[in-house]
Write a structure and sequence with these properties.
Helices cover about 10% and strands about 45% of the residues. It is mainly beta and about 400 residues long. The strands form 8 sheets. Strands 15-23-22-17-18-19 form a 6-stranded mixed β-sheet, with no helix packed on it. A 6-stranded mixed β-sheet has the order 24-32-31-26-27-28, with no helix packed on it. It is globular, with a radius of gyration of 25 Å. The model is unreliable at about 1-35 (pLDDT under 50).
């Protein structure tokens, strides 16, 4: 068989297993592969997807090929970039590999597995090669635990994860993704990062949000915060400690966190083009359901939604009652209401602010028809398929 890597074609006359033997021998030789990164990931069966991280420094033009493999499978290729090899059919339609830019120096080749199951457990290796003959691997040991796992095994797994996490934080150079959760409406949230690396005064610290949309969140350079370098929606909302280089506390404080801020944040510490340290933090801003209680005799009721998020004027606002049933209550798009997209029971019965996106008041007032209005409502603000803001309201009529 033939494996093509960019313009380089490798001819394997032997069985494809010999190729994986070659990869394994390369893997055990640190002299050949250089620095090696290793991470453990434990999840339970039933999740929609799992992401195995692989962030590589350098531009796309410097990378010859990137390949995700499992050496215990035949064929063992799961996803590839810059190569032409046989992909394992077990992962057709279930896996995808990102090839996005993350910040100024890093490229994201993370692997996403959809609907993970126990048979997906194993060691996944991200093998990469650059034009300067630098070859390396990033390994992720994935454990997908079935729902039949007994409680003692779960306790042991949790203890192991904590122990490995602490060890990785202290000794490993692996980029560990930390999870931070906050409820929308809280005043602020901190994305933690305390590094062990000595930081000279000439270093630059850059926080970016690499997913779902790449944005520059905060830049600290020459002992100053560079607000001009930020993306507009983060200006005036972020801060770092004035003595962050001396204390090595590079955590980022984000004010007024909203649903749109949910995503993966990456902090990079560098001098010119040399990266000294890095941290990834996944932020989840949870939407809290609000209860509204009205009387059955009320002629109207209001579903409240006042957001702190900066919303583009070409976004679409949609209110739906998703239980019981699923009906469209109100749609605002292109600067005006869209009654033809409403359910016929709500046409002419709803009203919003004349310019809700600019005023950030997305509340909708509905002419009440009585007890049948009770249920759960959701407002979503979308732009190009991305959800920028969300609110859920539970409407009770006479307390029921």
């Amino acid at each position: 068989m033939k494996l093509r890597c960019g313009k380089v074609e490798l001819d394997f006359c032997a069985d494809f297993k010999m190729f994986f033997l070659f990869l394994i021998l390369m893997h055990v030789s640190q002299h050949a592969l250089g620095r090696e990164e290793y991470e453990y990931k434990f999840i339970f069966e039933g999740q929609k997807s799992v992401e195995l991280p692989c962030y590589l420094p350098g531009g796309f033009e410097d990378i010859i090929f990137v390949m995700w493999v499992r050496s215990d499978l035949d064929p063992g290729i799961i996803q590839q970039y810059g190569t032409e090899g046989e992909v394992n059919p077990l992962y057709h339609g279930r896996s995808s590999m990102s090839a996005d830019t993350v910040g100024f120096f890093y490229r994201d080749f993370s692997l996403t597995l959809r609907k993970p199951r126990p048979s997906d457990s194993g060691i996944y290796t991200c093998i990469f090669s650059r034009k300067n003959h630098d070859v390396g691997v990033v390994e992720v040991d994935l454990k997908v635990l079935g729902t039949w796992i007994v409680f003692p095994l779960i306790v042991v797994a949790v203890v192991l994860v904590v122990a490995v996490g602490v060890a990785a934080y202290l000794w490993s150079t692996t980029i560990t993704v930390f999870q931070v959760k906050v409820k929308e409406g809280e005043g602020l949230v901190k994305l933690p990062y305390r590094t062990m690396v000595q930081l000279p005064e000439c270093v630059a610290v850059e926080w970016i949000r690499c997913a779902p949309d790449p944005m520059k969140v905060h830049v600290y350079h020459n002992e100053r915060n560079r607000r001009v370098s930020q993306d507009e929606i983060y200006r005036g909302r972020t801060s770092m400690r004035a003595d962050c280089l001396r204390t090595r506390d590079l955590g980022l404080t984000l004010r007024d966190p909203c649903y749109r801020d949910s995503g993966t944040f990456l902090c990079t510490v560098y001098i010119e083009q040399h990266v000294l340290a890095q941290r990834a933090v996944r932020l989840q801003v949870q939407v809290v359901e609000e209860e509204v209680n009205v009387l059955q005799s009320s002629k109207t009721f209001t579903l409240p939604f006042i957001t702190t998020a900066q919303l583009p004027e070409d976004a679409t606002v949609e209110w739906r009652r998703y239980w019981p049933g699923d009906t469209v209550v109100h749609v605002f798009e292109n600067g005006k209401d869209q009654p033809y997209r409403q359910d016929e029971n709500y046409r002419g019965q709803t009203m919003m602010n004349s310019n809700p996106l600019r005023s950030k008041d997305l509340s909708v007032t509905v002419t009440s028809s009585g007890f049948s209005d009770r249920g759960r409502y959701r407002c979503s603000v979308r732009r190009e398929g991305n959800v920028l803001a969300r609110k859920e309201v539970k409407l009770l009529v006479d307390g029921q």
